[in-house]
Amino acid sequence: MQTTATPTHCPYCALQCGMNLTPAPDGTVEVSERADFPVNRGALCGKGRTAPAVLSSRVRLTSPLVRSEGTLVPATWDEALDRIAGELRRTRSEHGPDAVGVFGGGGLTNEKAYTLGKFARVVLGTSQIDYNGRFCMSSAAAAGTKAFGLDRGLPFPLEDIPRTGCVILVGSNLAETMPPSLRFFSELRENGGTLIVVDPRRTKTAEQADLHLAPRPGTDLALALGLLHLVVAEGRVDEAYIEDRTSGWEEARAAAMAHWPEYVERITGVSVPELREAVRLFCEPEAAMVLTARGPEQQAKGTDTVGAWINLCLATGRAGRPLSGYGCLTGQGNGQGGREHGQKADQLPGYRKLDDPQARRHVAEVWGVDPDSLPGPGRSAYELLDALGTDIRSLLLMGSNPVVSAPRAAHVEQRLNSLGFLAVCDVVLSETAALADVVLPVTQWAEETGTTTSLEGRVLLRRQAITAPDGVRSDLEVLHELAGRLGVEKGFPTDAEEVFEELRRASAGGPADYSGITYRRLAEENGVFWPCPQEEPAQEGAADAAHPGTPRLFLDRFATPDGRARFVPVSHRASAEEPDEEYPVLLTTGRVVAQYQSGAQTRRVPELNAAAPGPFVELHPRLAARLGAAEGDPVAVVSRRGRAVAPARITTSIRPDTVFMPFHWPGEGRANTLTNPALDPTSRMPEFKACAVRLEVVRT
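Below the sequence we write its predicted structure tokens.
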């Protein structure tokens, strides 16, 4: 048995913190500090420290399950794979390839995401593939692409944050969602910089801020426009930068000038003096940054909202300069890589567009198929889920739990139940897996080798540290076996490094170019930032390219055809659903420190459950008094889509017109039963962060 430590990375958020794993004699796995990785320098949150708990065969799946007479029962791998292949073949034959859907996840490695997209398009011939990352970063990705010609979560490494002059952190509670990252912001303040936090709640992160702005949920767009208005009015525009490096300023300026400070104060609830102070803190230093997260992004106007914050950066000359710029704090462990290599409805590997003829030719050549055989773009994530049981008759799902995580979750559960056939690959029997006709037990992070791409755009190597239990196979093996059963014998290897070598070729020349990256380089260099194109070797006979990777983007030019960043004119508009007499309160949702995403894994860890045992409704004392609710009382939160019940948590840290619920739990406290599936017209992001609700104390 291996007893040496294996350097690897945490399975959870996009920080991808470094850690060492060592198998213990009692069969458990010990986590130890890995100080050489610069993002966390050995520090880990509670989720990272306890991550090996889910590796135990006591809490995870170790045998395929097949539904028989309404019940999931153990089966052999051949029985399970034969049934999946047979049902997918039957669906395609009777209803056409687009009657088969594929749904992936932002936690899948780059190799899995790449292979899943290839499987959908080459083996199944379906356009109906998307993934849960659509619910996380898609608005920021769309806005970044519009403005800069390229989306990479952070265009600079986290180590730049302490050296800038001011950071505006919009809609992120890093102290709970990414605790090891908070030190970068603490160091910023220690170095004399300032932190502005924009959040309707006074979170643990907001408590660290020099200035906390608490806008009404759904009004971040107006707030950003109001700040830009003041930048213009106070003569803080960097005219030379705009002239040299941007286009479209006059239209964006005109749109912003319609949002005068008093008007913005009425919309957002943020006072004019606070607006002016934010502009002063942001504009006075030589360098500054804006970082957004799910708060402004998970809105039906999320692309425009992020675009307004980007406009603020461009008008003040902050983007594409050292220690300055706009960045998105990607959420899921491989949320960045997951949206680059083909499991998204409109993309091919290398962040290429599926409707680009040149991109189709390049990838088709790597795959050995006719470009015309590749399907076109399909439905986005929620639209795909909403079509289940009607246009889509069978679904293959990997690494996602939409019964808990999707908006209007009860409706999504109904759509899943209406399918003719559902197959799920997962490590645990999640709420979604429990609905399946076939469930396949797959390997986890510590049991397999593969790459992920962090929120910095740093490609990392996760190394196998232990052997998976008997009865468990990798997702790559699953896709290999299914491809063979469906008549495609070649092109779906089970070795992750072999897959990555093909991914390198498929991504070559694309926006997310990995062609200069190898497993050896990842191991030796502690990760490599993309783009890293293949170039001439540094010396004759060298195995790898000389290109060092690109930690900092846009310093010379932006990724647009003319090299200029583009202002995009935007204007404030109301949320898709505003409070009214029947539903007078706003609901916003988010995460807590002890749980992760839908909780399918973390809810199986006793230490984390003890710290966060269940859902709650956070409300202001004034709202609680009007309702007649006391601390701990069961409160029903009711929207036009459903009802959720959880204990009241009364606090002054939230606005009186707003309630907050975390979304990690199923059952009667399932927050996403309430949320609004209204979609952003560009990113197709649902509006998780603002919907109208009413409250009722549940009397027993």
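The two ends are 56 Å apart (CA to CA).
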